[in-house]
Specification:
Ubiquitin-like (UB roll); Cytidine Deaminase, domain 2; 2 domains; six-stranded mixed beta sheet; four-stranded mixed beta sheet; 6 helices; 14 strands
Length: about 280
């Protein structure tokens, strides 16, 4: 199986002094996702949690909704002649009776680690229908205190083990409304990190994640907002900016979307009904 990090020798220049030294880099390799033997997508990712990544990807595409629809996930040999397994091809076997993905869902080019939407046949194909519509009321997730939200980025950063060695990974984490860390995943692609979280939750039988807060280390794109909605996550908080389309989707779906979550400062772009300020509900 591929490694999460790799070592390379680099030329280092500091204040005019030149030296060589080893550097730790985050690994990036392609992974092909198949469903019952049929190629569906190829994404660039950091090896590790590959089965969770594949499962989460299929949740966001509307193929899977709960653990009972998943039979098993296996690695496939990468050569027709039965050559050595590269552990870069994953086949998701659906449970009997679960329909295969509709025609047109296949990505027509490689997705990159920075853009999980590249190669979509059409924008309409992105707007998949969630099985877990978000309730208009805050329940079952308790109202959130902004002071609790404010500390979550630091807790996410503290849980990023590989980032400390490479400086080159995005992260996503699930927290309770009280700020307890439930799970964290790292990947060279921010959308992959979220898929790994959601896929692990599906495999553990924990979807929908209606009592969780999703925190991401970068910006909040439309795709990340969509992945939250598809998994039934009511709150998405990002340390950077959201896109206009992410805000539109959050407003339409009932998702609470927080951006620029830095220290005690944050912007709430949608779903303010789940927050309290000084003990009072925000309307």
């Amino acid at each position: 199986m591929g490694r999460v990090t790799e070592r390379r020798r680099v030329l280092r220049i500091r204040d005019g002094a030149v030296s060589t030294r080893p550097d730790t880099l985050v690994a990036e390799e392609p992974m092909e996702i198949r469903v019952d033997g049929r190629q569906l997508a190829v994404t660039m990712r950091t090896p590790g949690d590959d089965f969770a990544l594949a499962a989460g990807f299929l949740v966001s595409e509307g193929v899977l909704g709960d653990a009972e629809e998943l039979s098993r996930i296996v690695y496939c040999a990468g050569a027709e002649d039965g050559g050595a397994n590269t552990y870069n091809i994953v086949d998701v076997r659906l449970a009997p009776g679960v329909p295969l993905p509709e025609a047109g869902l296949e990505r027509n080019v490689y997705t990159t680690s920075s853009c999980g939407l590249c190669g979509k046949a059409s924008l309409d194909a992105v707007r998949t229908t969630t099985r877990w519509p978000l309730p208009e009321e805050p329940s079952p997730l308790p109202r959130l205190d902004p002071a609790t939200l404010a500390v979550l980025p630091d807790r996410l950063r503290a849980a990023q083990r590989v980032f400390e060695r490479t400086g080159g990974l995005h992260a996503a984490a699930l927290f309770t409304a009280e700020g307890e860390l439930l799970d964290v995943k790292e990947d060279v692609g921010r959308h992959n990190a979220v898929d790994k979280l959601v896929g692990q939750a599906l495999r553990d039988g924990r979807l929908p994640l209606r009592d969780a807060v999703l925190v991401v280390s970068g910006r909040a794109s439309f795709e990340l907002a969509q992945k939250a909605v598809m998994a039934g996550i009511p709150v998405l908080a990002a340390v950077s900016a959201p896109s206009s389309l992410a805000v539109d989707l959050a407003a339409e779906s009932g998702l609470t979307l927080v951006g620029f979550l830095r220290g005690r400062s944050m912007n709430v772009y949608a779903g303010a009904q789940r927050l309290t300020v000084s003990g009072e509900a925000v309307t």
